[in-house]
Amino acid sequence: MSLPPYQLRYSSKRRTLQLQIKAGQLRVAAPVGLSLRQIEDFIREKAGWIERHLSVPEPLVPDWLTQQQLPYLGRHLQLKIVTDTLNAWTLEGDTLWLQLSSRNKAENQRRWMQQLVQQFYANEAELWFGHSAARFANAMGVQYQRIRSGDFKRKWGSCSSKGDLQFNWRLMMAPEWICTYVLVHELAHLRHMNHSADFWQLVSQFNADAKPARAWLRQNQHWMQLD
Ligand SMILES: [Zn+2]
Predict the structure, then answer these.
(1) Domain parsing of the chain, residue ranges
(2) What is the pLDDT of residues 21-31, one digit of tens each?
């Protein structure tokens, strides 16, 4: 077996060899004094383990539009498409109907679907966050101006110094407890415009899920999209 490329680090604290795979790279920690030959023999011995762990596939991103299933606040909506005279969406129970205009060019059809589904999520986000904010702001003793949905690539929400709040429409693809955490997080910024200990203290007073919710978002953000 040819050796995979690896990063070697000697440590005076180590008694044994340790292999680790991080960001698709093999790292070796070795006790001082071990020869390169001993280290490489060890790597050869562990070839099976290394190969299994180096070839873990990237997380799969579902293609929601093709599957015609949309994640929505912890459940799934069925997507149904009909040809019509205009482009529009309608929610009926657990079905999201997309009307696609017969005048759309065939090559633009998918873009129209993306646009309509995004409009739907953005609309729901304004309703959900608008409705829930009133309740929490009261309890937290803060006041906001406007609630809107936002199309952000790298953040879930924002809070301006004027008290305008924005929430990423992609949050409507997450369960409600995640949305609730992001809501409380942004409302807490109305009192603390930073991420200080006082800020987190206020968040935890009104939401016990901050830690698991942040972990959930890190683990699931890759499929919260329509591309
Ligand atoms: Zn923040």
Answers:
(1) 6-54, 64-223
(2) 887 789 999 99
Going from the Cα of 6 to the center of ligand 1, the distance in angstroms, rounded, reads: 38
3-state secondary structure 33-53: CCCHHHHHHHHHHCHHHHHHH
Dihedral class, residue 24 (left if φ above 0, else alpha if ψ from -120 to 50, else beta): left
Helix axes 109-140, 176-188, angle to 10 degrees: 60
**Gap from CA of 12 to ligand 1 centroid (Å):** 41
187 CA distance to ligand 1 middle (Å): 9
CA 196 to ligand 1 center in whole angstroms:
10
CA of 219 to the centre of ligand 1 (A): 18
Q: What's the whole-number mean pLDDT along residues 109-117?
A: 95
Give me the pLDDT at residue 59, please: 66
Angle at 21 between CA 17 and CA 27, to 5 degrees: 45
How far apart are the C-alpha atoms of 211 and 213, rounded to whole Å? 5
Of residues 148, 66, 157, the one with CA closest to residue 113: 66
Task: Express each pLDDT in 61-103 by its tens digit.
Answer: 789 999 999 999 999 999 999 999 999 999 999 999 999 999 9
The third-level CATH classification (topology) of the domain covering 64-223 is Zincin-like (3.30.2010)
